[in-house]
Amino acid sequence: MICRKYFSNFLVKQNFPSSKLYLSNLTRNSSMTAKSVELNSFSRRKKSNSDIGWILLVLPISAFGLGTWQVRRKLWKENLIQELKSKTKLPALDFPENEKELTNLEYRRIKVVGEFDHSKELYLGPRSCLTDGGAENTNGLFSGSGSTKSGYYVITPFKLSNRPYSILVNRGWVSMQNKNPASRVSGQVAGEIELEGVVRLTESRPQFVTKNVADSRFWAYRDLEAMSKIVDSEPIMIDAVVECSIPGGPIGGQTNISLRNEHVSYIITWYGLAIATGYMWYAKYSHALRSIIK
Asked: Which residue ranges traverse the bilayer (predicted)?
């Protein structure tokens, strides 16, 4: 620019005939060049903004997809809970000749005849008392499993009359105050009885649950192998059904079929995120994109 200025002054001083025409063309070309650079820069900026806009559109689309997936998961979980609940209501089967068949009968009722050994009670918990398997509290924003009052499940060895061994029976729930057998003497049934129970298998240690303590009568989760060794029984457990509850004794029917079902909160979260990010994207990029389309 400085060279051009001095060159222009030189032409004027020399009174060249074409100096004015040259200066006019030079000024016009300079102006057009600056405008062209500005337009090209604006065009690149506009293109860059639109590219980023299309990339960011992935956020609301992904959130909407995850919300839809959670809707399907919710339906699947509800169907599974209903299936488990139906299993527990089917007529009771006889105890199988081969006890290994029990691995395919979880959540099915079976009939057993025998006698309790109350001197070897174990306690599983702390647990809340379930009503109808806890399934009625699983469709809200947060899943629940029954009463908020804390207590224990009473696990008692049961000597089978038609087998040379004992199994474990979850007789049901008792409050903290009634954990001691001396506080529920009327519920300590003696002699041979027949009862129905739901087959339960061993479980892995749940997340955030403390480890079981070996040689203890108190257990945090169902480890049938370890529990059976303490009371000298087979690693087989059934949950006594609610009809087998005895006044003064544990409350039966403590088979948990609720499962974890918090998909409603997940659905609200993902769809809410899709709406929020979609609105922000529209407010930011819709005008630029419409101008490009035009």
From this structure: 52-71, 264-282
Determine, yes or no, domain membership for 165: yes
- Which residues partner with 199 through β-bridges? 238
| Separation CA 83–CA 259 (nearest Å) | 12
Tell me the C-alpha distance between 71 and 53, whole Å. 28
Q: Decide: 152 and 172 in contact? Cβ < 8 Å.
A: no
Alpha-carbon gap, residue 71 to 144, rounded angstroms: 19
C-alpha to C-alpha distances, 150 to 43, 174, 177, 209, nearest whole angstrom:
68, 9, 10, 16
Residue 139 maps to a domain: no
Q: Is the pTM of this model over 0.85?
A: no
List pLDDT tens digits, range 109-130: 999 999 999 999 999 999 999 9
- Number of structural domains in the chain: 2
Residue 189: CB atoms within 10 Å: 17
Is it true that the peptide bond before 126 is cis, omega within 30 degrees of 0? yes
